[in-house]
Amino acid sequence: MHTQILRDGTGLNQALRSRRKELGLTQEELGQRAGLAAKHVSRIENGTHEPKVSTLFALVSALGLELALGETGKVASVPSVKDIF
After folding, report:
1. Residue 77 sits in which domain range?
2. What's the confidence (pLDDT) of residue 11?
3. Over the stretch 22-56, which tens digit does the pLDDT of each residue have?
4. How far apart are CA 42 and CA 46, in angstroms?
5. Cβ(17)–Cβ(28) under 8 Å?
6. The CATH number of the domain where 60 resides is what?
7. Is residue 2 in some structural domain?
8. Quick check: 75 and 61 in contact, CB under 8 A?
9. Where does the record place the HTH cro/C1-type domain (predicted)?
10. Percentage of the chain with pLDDT > 90?
11. How far is CA 30 from CA 3, 6, 10, 80, in A?
12. Tell me, what's the pLDDT at 73?
């Protein structure tokens, strides 16, 4: 998956769904990985429920993604572990 800049909940919901499908996971499987019910994953992906931050981090981790923040108009450069040590 390439780096995406998301500026609203709809973009986030679509990105999570896209990554789940890219990995070949069902909502049930993603829910198991993130400690959530499949119904909860479905509501988040469909935009009928806004997840708590802790839930968002659980989903991001379960999907093998990272969440980075940066200034508007500037792509954040996240150093790799190799760059730090």
Report:
1. 9-84
2. 84
3. 999 999 999 999 999 999 999 999 999 999 999 99
4. 6
5. no
6. 1.10.260.40
7. no
8. no
9. 16-70
10. 62
11. 21, 21, 19, 26
12. 76
